[in-house]
What does this fold into?
Amino acid sequence: MTTAPSTPPTTVPVFHHVGIQTTDLDNAVAWYEDFFGGRRSWSLTEFTPLTESRLPGIRALTEVVVGNLRIHLFERDGDPAVPEQSRTQFQHVCVSVGDPAELASLRRRWFELYGSGRYAFALSEQATGIVNDHDGVQSFYALDVNGLEFEFTYVPRTAPTR
Ligand SMILES: [Fe+2]
It folds into this structure.
């Protein structure tokens, strides 16, 4: 038995960044800088327990900014995408909301829809908790019905590096 979803939220998420996995961060950053004319914005080499559980073995992350496009390149062991095979290509896409309450609301809605029985989910992985970074950024991660990962984030105005 399925249940109808409640009224859609009034939150309008905006695109924030795309996360791209690489096995060679320096190589990838150089290419994104040179191809798009982007610039390095910030880098991380220490990660939250949530990130380390989502992406075991992550070594470093660098944001490259091209105009309004943010690309989060992160280094981790893995295999390159194989064009002849059907597989997910991007690691995650991030959208942002303007208020922490909207973030919590989106997370509740994800669980509401997951539990409604209206959809077939390729994976049973549940939405993560909301993690708080040291600079006030809040995020959670959740899969769509295909198993593609979304990051939902709230970035306070006082966190200019994001
Ligand atoms: Fe991200």
Remarks:
- The helical segments are 25-36, 49-54, 100-116.
- The first helix runs from residue 25 to 36.
- Residues 14-78+90-154 form a domain with the 2,3-Dihydroxybiphenyl 1,2-Dioxygenase; domain 1 fold (CATH 3.10.180.10).
- The two ends are 43 Å apart (CA to CA).
